[in-house]
């Protein structure tokens, strides 16, 4: 079995290399007409360390989604997301906290950098501006080209990064698929249909999730700011869709940590899913050593196993684990065994039917204001009716 796994992994890697070469040859000239785009992913950190990441692509601007978009418009947007061309070996200049840094994109166009923020950060602030630009890359502005003007401009992207304030009581790490967003991740065809043929307006949230996450962010005292991080095995190509979805649904803004899309066997394996999510969770915990965390996921895939491992690795740092029940009775029994393991480490792990059940337990632990429970119930009813 190990032989075939190694064979498949090697063959997939070689196929991906050959595919990239063929794509470069066939689409090189067409891609030259596409403008450079810096795709920044919300950075995050603490007063001691900040992690920044993003990607450089040749890609036309994606259209703004609408609740009136047709099947073909959604399909075109999906093609644009996955049909972009990565730009390797380019220098990205990053301006943050009055300092300038540089990073170089890898073979897939990604860049990543860890920096140390200044010691005198403003008290009471969580979001800070960051500016990305391509070093030495200029391009014709499309709107100027339309009127015949000849003028080049720098490729620039303005963004923000999040630093958990010193008064945060805890952080939240949440799965996305089948926890926040209805995906039916255990059904490959249904997941593909929802992902490729829908948009941010057609996707559905789990009932009451927006009000629950707002309550967690506010904590038991509404003047608090508890950071929320979203971790998923979905590809980075869907980042803009998720940002729009969270905004439309009123879900609190936070870093969204996705994964690269490649042809390796790990992409389709539970091992790859487990490794990616566990690695991202560890990174969040590492840059927030002062914070305990609440973990939220679902029973459909491997969230219970991953969170159980996080509990074992981080004694005293996990306040509670909430698992939305979206699976069969046989799977639920396996989850209950993991619940007993978490309880042995003095961590409550609950298998819950809906958001309200999790919120009521969170209120009993003093994680949220009990007065937010009626709002969460009302939000659940509104989502169910819509």
From TrEMBL:
Instruction: Outline the extent of the Phosphatidate phosphatase APP1 catalytic domain.
Output: 170-325
Please list the GO terms describing molecular function: phosphatidate phosphatase activity
Q: Which InterPro entries match?
A: APP1_cat, Mg2+_PAP
Q: Which Pfam families does the protein's record reference?
A: APP1_cat (PF09949)
| Protein name in the entry | Phosphatidate phosphatase APP1 catalytic domain-containing protein
Q: Which organism is it from?
A: Spirosoma pollinicola
């Amino acid at each position: 079995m190990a032989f075939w796994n190694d064979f498949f992994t090697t063959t997939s890697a070689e196929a991906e290399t050959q595919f990239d070469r063929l794509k470069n040859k066939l689409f090189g000239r067409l891609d030259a007409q596409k403008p450079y785009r810096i795709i920044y992913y919300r950075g995050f950190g603490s007063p001691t360390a900040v992690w920044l990441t993003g990607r450089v692509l040749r890609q036309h601007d994606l259209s703004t989604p609408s609740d009136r978009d047709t099947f073909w418009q959604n399909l075109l947007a999906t093609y644009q997301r996955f049909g972009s061309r990565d730009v390797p070996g380019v220098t990205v200049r990053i301006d943050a906290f009055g300092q300038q840094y540089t990073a170089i994109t890898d073979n897939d166009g990604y860049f990543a950098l860890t920096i140390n923020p200044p010691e005198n950060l403003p008290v009471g602030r969580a979001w800070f501006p960051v500016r990305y630009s391509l070093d030495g890359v200029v391009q014709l502005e499309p709107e100027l080209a339309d009127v015949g003007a000849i003028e080049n401009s720098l490729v620039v992207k303005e963004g923000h990064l999040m630093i958990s304030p010193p008064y945060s009581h805890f952080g939240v790490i949440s799965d996305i698929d089948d926890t926040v967003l209805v995906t039916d991740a255990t059904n490959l065809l249904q997941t593909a249909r929802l992902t490729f043929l829908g948009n941010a307006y057609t996707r559905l949230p789990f009932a009451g999730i927006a009000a629950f996450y707002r309550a967690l962010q506010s904590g038991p005292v509404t003047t608090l700011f508890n950071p929320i991080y979203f971790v998923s095995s979905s590809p980075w190509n869907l980042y803009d869709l998720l940002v729009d979805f969270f905004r439309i649904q009123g879900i609190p803004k936070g870093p969204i940590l996705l994964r690269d899309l490649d042809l390796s066997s790990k992409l389709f394996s539970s091992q790859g899913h487990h490794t990616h999510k566990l690695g991202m969770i560890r990174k969040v915990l590492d840059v927030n050593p002062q914070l305990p965390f609440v973990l939220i996921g679902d029973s459909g895939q491997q969230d219970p196993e991953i969170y159980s491992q996080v509990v074992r690795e981080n004694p005293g740092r996990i306040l509670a684990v909430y698992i939305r029940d979206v699976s069969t009775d046989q799977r639920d029994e396996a989850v209950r065994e993991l619940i007993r393991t978490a309880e042995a480490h003095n961590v409550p792990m609950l298998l819950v039917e809906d958001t309200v059940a999790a919120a009521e337990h969170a209120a009993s632990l003093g994680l949220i204001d009990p007065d937010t429970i009626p709002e969460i119930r009302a939000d659940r009813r509104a989502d169910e009716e819509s």
